[in-house]
């Protein structure tokens, strides 16, 4: 019997496992290698109000503004007020944040009022955090099972009591635990163009929903405006920090077109920039190019060594040539509904990091807040499980409940992952509309109904993608307004009647 089983080994899973290991026996389950996660690819950095000119209140204000009316204020307070303490923990785990002299170096990113983004290795922040936490986990002797898929949350007497797993040799096990921390990351693999690695298939959301937890805010998917769009190269993120350092988006005529779309130009919020790029491409003014050729080469080399090296592998030198870019699915604001302590409605189940919906992102995430969310709410989950939590304020945004069955009868051919990704990209992507959304929903329901019980890793992942995709399409169809990252061409403006969160519960 484990005191804690943690599912996932990104920043949220590793950080909560390290915290929990001070108090009991912990097992980390992860479906790839320990280091594989969205976390390791994070570039820009981690936001925290640590500068003298900054404060948690200012950080909170920017977070609330990005969230377009749907952030939960107490969750945002927890995020921003505890940021500095959790950064101190990361420093204690020897994360080598970049410095300017003795002080921590702070970058500026879109929609942040001040420079407050800590980074490591220039643009290799996630890699350094992941590596430092993996080293700490091994040094602490925490048990970890790699290449092991969590396939089910075991529920006994209305309480999560363990995890069923499938390992790389096909062995199925049922592992009992007093608490389970779900830290399994996002679902970028729902879309054909994504910055997320292959492991991001929304497993945790599907597992939690099938076990009886509620999922919230699934219609809010952040599309990053600038993924490298180069034939022959895999989608690769060109960090927002590139525009923060002065990078300019230009169309085929070399026009710095963002000024036409938003007074903040290249530093407008991600959804605005992503749709502007999509519009330029649709209007035949592409390719869209991100230009840093006016910056000193030394700045590019110091701040963006990872991006520079990646692009050079494909024959592009960003110091002298602009980079072709296009939007890609990047981050899921929604997730397993939790309170401000990471507790879900199911006793014994916590969720933290990208799989969770704590309410800090609302309808749109402020850049560099997600790594921070992983450590703040990972820490809080363990405090709550230990009975050391403070008060739990009521959520400030009302929820509207929708009831759906996790399984469906149906008849259709069995899709490939690529079929699902294409459907979501085309009909549940950057611009949405009732007709295509309803078609996507019908198709996803038919596919889901046709699936037999999964037995291999690929089958489990496909079943999870279909369930999460279906709930996402249903939420996007239901929300008849545009807000934050959710844009409906047929309802292009925000509507106060939708100042609520859509929450899915099982029938
Ligand atoms: C390219 C890129 C750049 C980014 N840049 C930034 C940035 O600069 N700043 C920022 O704040 N955010 C950034 N983000 C977002 C951020 O990286 C993620 O939101 C964050 O790392 C999520 O951390 P996590 O621990 O919740 O999940 P992940 O880091 O995704 O970890 C999830 C883990 O769960 C495991 N897992 C999943 N399903 C199962 C299962 N069924 N069984 C067992 N294990 C499972 C995975 O293998 C993985 O180890 C970026 C994301 C990407 C993709």
Q: What structural class results from the helix and strand content?
A: alpha/beta
Q: Give the low-pLDDT segments.
A: none
Percent range of helical residues = 25-40%
Strand content: 15-25%
Features:
single chain, 507 residues, alpha/beta, 7-stranded mixed β-sheet, 5-stranded mixed β-sheet, 15 helices, 33% helix, 20% strand, globular, binds flavin-adenine dinucleotide
Explain this structure:
This protein has helices spanning 11-20, 56-66, 73-81, 83-92, 125-139, 203-211, 240-244, 258-261, 270-282, 297-303, 305-313, 370-385, 417-427, 434-450, 457-478, and strands at residues 2-7, 26-29, 46-47, 99-100, 103-104, 106-107, 117-118, 143-145, 148-156, 159-167, 172-182, 215-216, 221-228, 248-250, 288-291, 323-332, 335-337, 349-351, 356-357, 399-404, 501-506. With 507 residues, it is an alpha/beta fold. Strands 1, 2, 8, 9, 10, 11 and 18 form a seven-stranded mixed beta sheet that branches. A five-stranded mixed beta sheet has the order 19-17-12-21-20, covered by helices on one side. A four-stranded antiparallel beta sheet has the order 13-16-15-14, covered by helices on one side. Strand 1, helix 1 and strand 2 (26-29) form a beta-alpha-beta unit. Helix 2 (56-66) crosses helix 3 (73-81). The chain is globular and about 65 Å long. Bound molecules: flavin-adenine dinucleotide (FAD). Flavin-adenine dinucleotide binds at residues 7-13, 29-32, 36-39, 41-46, 125-126, 149-150, 183-185, 195-196, 199-200, 203-204, 237, 331, 353-355, 368-371, 374.
């Amino acid at each position: 019997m484990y005191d804690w089983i943690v599912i996932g080994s990104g920043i949220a899973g590793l950080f909560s496992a390290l915290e929990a290991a001070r108090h009991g026996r912990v097992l980390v389950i992860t479906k790839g290698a320990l280091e594989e996660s969205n976390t390791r690819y994070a570039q820009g950095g981690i936001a925290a109000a640590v500068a003298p000119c900054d404060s948690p209140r200012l950080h909170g204000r920017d977070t609330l503004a990005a969230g377009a009316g749907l952030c939960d204020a107490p969750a945002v307070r927890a995020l921003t007020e505890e940021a500095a303490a959790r950064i101190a923990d990361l420093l204690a785990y020897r994360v080598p944040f970049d410095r300017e002299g003795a002080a921590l170096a702070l970058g500026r990113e879109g929609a942040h009022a001040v420079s407050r983004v800590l980074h490591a290795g220039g643009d290799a922040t996630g890699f350094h955090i992941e590596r430092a936490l993996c080293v700490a986990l091994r040094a602490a002797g925490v048990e970890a099972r790699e290449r092991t898929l969590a396939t089910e949350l075991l529920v006994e007497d209305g309480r999560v009591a363990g995890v069923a797993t499938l390992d790389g040799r096909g062995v199925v096990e049922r592992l009992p635990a007093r608490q389970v921390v779900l830290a399994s990351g996002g679902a970028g693999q729902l879309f054909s163009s994504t910055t997320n690695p292959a492991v991001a298939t929304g497993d945790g959301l599907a597992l939690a929903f099938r076990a009886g937890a509620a999922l919230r805010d699934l219609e809010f998917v952040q599309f990053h405006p600038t993924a490298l769009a180069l034939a022959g190269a895999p989608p690769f993120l060109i960090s927002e920090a590139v525009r923060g350092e002065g990078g300019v988006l230009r169309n085929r005529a070399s026009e710095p077109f963002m000024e036409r779309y938003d007074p903040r130009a290249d530093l407008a919020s991600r959804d605005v920039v992503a749709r502007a790029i999509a519009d330029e491409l649709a209007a035949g003014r592409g390719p869209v190019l991100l230009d840093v050729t006016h910056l000193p080469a030394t700045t590019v080399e110091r701040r963006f060594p990872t991006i520079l090296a990646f692009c050079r592998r494909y024959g592009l030198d960003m110091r002298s040539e602009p980079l072709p870019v296009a939007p890609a699915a990047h981050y899921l604001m929604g997730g397993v509904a939790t309170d401000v302590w990471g507790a879900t409605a199911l006793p014994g189940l916590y969720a933290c990091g990208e799989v969770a919906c704590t309410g800090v992102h609302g309808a749109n995430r402020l850049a560099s807040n997600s790594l921070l969310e992983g450590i703040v709410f990972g820490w809080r989950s363990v405090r709550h499980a230990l009975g050391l939590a403070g008060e739990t304020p009521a959520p400030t945004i009302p929820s509207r409940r929708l009831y759906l069955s996790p399984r469906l009868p149906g008849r259709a051919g069995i899709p490939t992952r690529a079929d699902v990704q294409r459907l979501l990209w085309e009909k549940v992507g950057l611009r949405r509309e009732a007709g295509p959304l309803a078609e996507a929903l019908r198709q996803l329901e038919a596919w889901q109904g046709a699936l037999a019980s999964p037995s291999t890793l690929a089958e489990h992942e496909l079943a999870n993608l279909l369930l999460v995709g279906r709930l996402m399409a249903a939420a996007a169809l239901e929300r008849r307004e545009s807000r934050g990252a959710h844009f409906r061409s047929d309802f292009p403006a925000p509507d106060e009647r939708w100042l609520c969160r859509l929450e899915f519960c099982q029938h």
